[in-house]
Structure formats: structure tokens, C-alpha cells
Design goal:
heterodimer, A: elongated, transmembrane helix (chain B), transmembrane (chain B)
Chain lengths: 137, 162
């Protein structure tokens, strides 16, 4: 159903470049997940795929299907928006969970983390999740 | 108007998105409008802090700055990953900063920016004292990060939101 040979050469080159670079960035992020040492370093690796990896592949896809179907195709923007909105939440939750785990000496992780910002219990709201299990000072 | 269409901008954007994703027919216009009104109505019940944009002109500037910074840090992190985690040229660590931003919407945008930038991860934020804990993959000096975030993002975000 797709006629790839109808694409103009300049578009084909740009699309190929975007897809290859985007996919390489995403792959590199995945390799980084394995290669990096600590949990916090690993938090950085997937953002490669999340930022420009996604962006380049989305741009390439939009360009290709817009040219191939002769109308503006923007469905991919939805993918971009949803990834942009959801991924930071996941990474934030993971980071905070890891911080809470590493501050608890009983669990015996040897990761060095900075101490809690305040010694007093914060009032409910945002901090409740990370503080509930702690003994009151 | 405000009773039945509590978030006109959000609803209008949703209708547009619906028409983009499907095709422009009266049926889809009606369905999209109903969905958009329902979405606006349910957002109203979540009581989000209403964002107030003071200067629209700063938004494209912020987006350009962020896109450029993310591109640069993509390259930097890719190099770190290729060199391998044991390379002596860089080391990762935590950085503590103080922020002047207080507006929750602006903070949310800043969190998305910092998390979306490879090489910085937003770990913990103390809302009352405005202290932020970041984890940085390729660490330079402490002041460097403080001034980087203050000058590049915080100033623009304060211009937009506060």
C-alpha cells in the first residue's frame, strides 16, 4: 500500500537520517542502562530515547506519511506529547523511591546519598509518600 | 460560559486534536466537542492551580533554549555512554540547589525540563525552603549548576509565570 519509490530523494535521505540517529540514541540509552553502575546513573540513560530518540523518529514518521499520503499527518504528535508528560513522572517516582531506600541503613545498600534536606517532618502534601514509614523524630 | 465550558482553551485544543486525528465530518465534530466538554468538566473537578501566563513571548524562547540544551546534553551523555562508566574524565554525583520559583505550574515545567534533559535527574524538592536535590551524570562545580539553572530556566520561567 505504501509506495516508497514515490518519495523525493531529499526526503528519503532526511527520513533515513532521522530514523537511524533516533534509533541509535535509543539503543545507546538501552545499552547505558546495562553499562552504568549505580541506580542514579541509570536514571539518565533512558532519557536519551525519551528526548531526541523519540523526537527524531516522530519527525521522520510525520514527514514520511505526510509526503506519502499527500496530507498533513500529525498523529505522531500525540505519541510525543504523551511520552513527554508521562516519562518524567516515572523517573521522578523511581528516583525518590531509590533515595528513600538508600537512606534506610537497615536495607544495607552502600550507595552514598545526601542526608534528608530537613530533619523535621514536613507537613503532609507532597512529601507524604516518601516519609510515611519513618519513625517520628 | 464558564459554568458549561470551564476550561475553554483546553476544550478547544482537544476538539482540534480530535479533528486532526480523525477526519473533518460533522459527526466527529460533535463527538469531539462532547469529549472535550467532558474533559474540561472533569479537570474542573480536580481543582488544579490555574496557570497565569504573564508573558507569552517568553514561551517560544524557553522552548528554543530547552531544545538546544537537550540536544547538547544528548550528545554529552551519548559520549559518556560510549566512553564507558569507568572513564576518569567524568564523575556523577548529587547537587543541591536553591530555587526561587514557588508557582506549582512553573515547578512542574522545570521538573519536566530537568528530567527530560539527559544528564540531570530531579530527585527531591523541598517546597518550603525551595531546595532541590539533583543527580548529575557529568558533574562540574556546584556553583556552575546553580547559576546555569538560575540564568537559563528559572529567570525565563519566572518571567512567564510569576
Amino acid at each position: 500500500m505504501m509506495h516508497l519509490e514515490q518519495l523525493p530523494p531529499w526526503a528519503a535521505v532526511i527520513i533515513a537520517l532521522f530514523v537511524v540517529v533516533g534509533a541509535s540514541l535509543t539503543l545507546l540509552g538501552g545499552v547505558g542502562l546495562v553499562r552504568l553502575k549505580s541506580f542514579y546513573q541509570r536514571l539518565h540513560a533512558p532519557t536519551l530515547g525519551y528526548s531526541y530518540g523519540t523526537l527524531l523518529i516522530i519527525l521522520a514518521s510525520m514527514l514520511m506519511f505526510s509526503l506519502a499520503e499527500g496530507r498533513v499527518v500529525v498523529h505522531e504528535l500525540m505519541i510525543g506529547i504523551f511520552i513527554m508528560v508521562t516519562t518524567p513522572i516515572t523517573l521522578l517516582m523511581l528516583g525518590r523511591a531509590a533515595l528513600r531506600r538508600d537512606r534506610d541503613r537497615k536495607l544495607g545498600h552502600d550507595e552514598v546519598v545526601p542526608p534528608r534536606i530537613r530533619s523535621t517532618e514536613p507537613p503532609a502534601e507532597t512529601e507524604t509518600e516518601s516519609e510515611t514509614g519513618d519513625p517520628q523524630p | 460560559m464558564s459554568r458549561f465550558v470551564p476550561h475553554p482553551v483546553l476544550s478547544a485544543v482537544l476538539v482540534l486534536m480530535w479533528l486532526f486525528l480523525t477526519a473533518f465530518t460533522p459527526g466527529h465534530l460533535l463527538l469531539g466537542t462532547l469529549i472535550a466538554l467532558g474533559a474540561g468538566w472533569s479537570v474542573e473537578h480536580l481543582h488544579p492551580p490555574k496557570p497565569v501566563f504573564r508573558r507569552w513571548l517568553a514561551i517560544p524562547k524557553l522552548m528554543a533554549v530547552v531544545a538546544l540544551d537537550i540536544l547538547r546534553s544528548n550528545i554529552a551523555v551519548a559520549r559518556v555512554l560510549i566512553l564507558g562508566p569507568d572513564h576518569p574524565k567524568y564523575h556523577s554525583g548529587f547537587v543541591e540547589l536553591t530555587l526561587r520559583l514557588r508557582d506549582p505550574n512553573a515547578l512542574a515545567v522545570l521538573a519536566i525540563i530537568l528530567t527530560g534533559t539527559p544528564g540531570t535527574a530531579w530527585i527531591e524538592f523541598d517546597q518550603e525552603e525551595g531546595r532541590l536535590l539533583l543527580h548529575v551524570l557529568d558533574l562540574r562545580s556546584d556553583d556552575d549548576w546553580q547559576s546555569l539553572i538560575r540564568d537559563r530556566y528559572e529567570a525565563l520561567l519566572m518571567e512567564i509565570f510569576e
